[in-house]
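Hi U.,

Before I forget, here's the chain from the pilot set. I'm dumping it here mostly so it's searchable later in email.
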Amino acid sequence: MSEKETMKMKTMPPLVPLGTLIGRELRHGNVEKPTINYGQAALAKKGEDYFLIKPDFLRVPEDPSTSFSVFAIFDGHNGISAAIFAKENLLNNILSAIPQGCDREEWLQALPRALVAGFVKTDIEFQQKGETSGTTVTFVVIDGWTITVASVGDSRCILDTQTGVVSLLTVDHRLEENVEERERVTASGGEVGRLNIFGGNEVGPLRCWPGGLCLSRSIGDTDVGEFIVPIPHVKQVKLSNCGGRLIIASDGIWDALSSDMAAQCCRGLPAELAAKLVVKEALRSRGLKDDTTCVVVDIIPYGYPAIPQTPKKKQNLLTSLIPGKRFHNSLNKEPNKLSAVGTVEELFEEGSAMLAERLGKDLALNSNSGTFRCAVCQGNEAPNDELSAGPMLCSKCSRKKDAMEGKRANLGH
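Structure:
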């Protein structure tokens, strides 16, 4: 090697690992937004499943750079009215709880709290209609590489990455499987037990009484009791720019297929065909015993093929949430460092059913009128002595909070 070549090598900057370069790009917003492809399929037994697909919603009107996507499934029970009402009103209630004028990072940080407020507000508004049906909700917001999922009930959202690792982004609020939720329901004044038949034998899954509902969280269900709460589990993650696939489905899918089975059966197929195959596989496995709805969403790196490839090494790893686990607000944590290509960074997770823990205590006073903005319904109310603890709530939403915690009957119906 010549002296000139040796000097040139010495003056060259050191090589930087690819993962570090991608991390720098993500931090500075230089990676192109992914392409979103989606497909939906369903088979009806009772006709109580509904879904919402909005692939190009804008945070700022007429500004395409502020686009985000929304996908949701509503699995109704005891009628369709709660599912329809939630489909038509939940998104607007969530967006109204996000402060105006936020940039993208502030908007994403405000989103988990806004999801809680939107779910509770939708529940209050529906209960005022005097109808008794209820619905599960799995609500997914995708903004760039960030995925935020809020859920009540037992519809589920899973994430399948290019490495073949399947992660559960929701928690099932079934009394049969969730010990912590059983304890919460009984502490709030509900009873949990199985259905008694003639002769004193108990059959079927655990239910809460009165009402006999198998779930501990939902929107609606006015006749069951306020211990069935609409406060969602929320999880927010950030993908690497390898992308991934979401499978969002009602329990008609998950009663027939495990998360791994659902992901594996449709790998290598475009989203529309994948959704149909998941429904077909659930039907083949269990028959049509319930409404069966599936939405598949592919988050594809810019410029990559539209069809996600089957991973070379299939891994049977299910990253699931253990029933009974206590969730803690991670907004106060230092964010995880951007990790290697193909991994998922967890930004936020919270599942508490206590409204005070989810909404905090921010008093947004209007300097002109002296009123504050309710953390749930966004209405204006004058402060009073009863607003010393917990989130700032109007009288109606405060009664709802107390009723959910078993402090007194909700007088707002």
